[in-house]
Hints:
single chain, alpha+beta, Rossmann fold, N-terminal domain of TfIIb, four-stranded mixed β-sheet, 8 strands, elongated
Amino acid sequence: MYVVFNTFFALLEQGDQVRCFQAVARVLEPDGTFLLECFVPDPGRFDWGQSLRTISVSDGDVRIDASRHDPVSQRVTSNVVHNANGSVSVRPVRLRYAWPAELDLMATLAGLHLDRRWDGWGKEPFSAASANHVSLHRR
């Protein structure tokens, strides 16, 4: 089984994230694996609990990300604002992030263990400088 592109973080409660690991563990074959692709949280990108950053700018096209960070609940609430030739759209994004060690604990609670973790799909070594990870959990 796999969950990619940070979609695991769409589960907005820690309990829901734990239950996801438990549900995966129940249906995995004895030699099965659960792969997660997630970002590594970076609270430093927020100033006073908020962030406003430009995603892209070109002639007639601007994308901006406006975010608020709650470190207690580990939640980020964002809106991606897109202005394309005067037509504005807003896409909300809500997530609850988890640190790699927290994901490993969720796996352990579900009867899984971390088998491997890489910096990305190229299987680069994971390090303290990694911004993303691909983690493989086994029974």
